[in-house]
Phosphotriesterase-related protein (Kutzneria buriramensis), 283 residues
Amino acid sequence: MIRTVLGDVDRLGVTNSHDHLFFASKALPGQELDDVGAALVELQRFCRAGGRAVVQWTPYGLNRRLDALPDLSRRSGVSIVAATGFHQVQHYSADFVAESLPRLEELFVNDIRHHRAGLVKIAGGFHGLDAHAVRTMEAAAAAHHETGAPVSVHLELGTGALDVLDLLCGRLEMPPERVILGHLNRFPDVWAQRRAAEAGAWLALDGPSRANHATDWMMPTLLVDLADAGFAGQLLVGGDTTTAGARGMPGMAYLLKRLRPRLEAELAEQVFVVNPGRAFDAF
């Protein structure tokens, strides 16, 4: 079963596997997503384009608006998978970090069991893992082992995928098929992508989201090349609209209106329907 904000379901349908309806960070002042009406319009546009589910990766403490998500799902007809988890340290106040870090496992498990979170979102660093990243990954792996929830990872500028897998699937003994690596298209290192795929992890290519993500135009080619290399069953696609300036430009519907037609029908069905149903199926 897949845990949505309205309860567990056995399928998602056409899915945007990484996006944000709500988001607010100390590191991005003035770029908050906190407009329920705008979120509803975005979901309705996605639904009219054929979308049936959105996975919101906004973690604990960054205005994920768990209170608003159920009503938005009902009104739009789009299933929403919500996240728990913890982002990079710069997104929070020092007091919030100090108060939260010692009890992350408890927070994550509570969100999954009592607040219908369907995944744990954490983050790596640029080409490596700092102490904060290691701590959050330890907590995420513990929550996975207790609940079965998948763990999604923000890779900073698409880097550090193999370091993440070494920790999560090595010392922390997570099965790689429960790990979702995000932003791989932002650092299109084919060698690293294929090593991550060979390890058994999910590869999430998410964009276009912001105008300054210069690798967005490569995403369709990366999808096709990875599929041709035998990894079609491990690919996910999302929009990752994270700021107010990005909302609606091009918006979630872009994935279905402009990206999906560039893929062969079989691959499109795989990355938009079949794979999300497997990646987020853990309960």
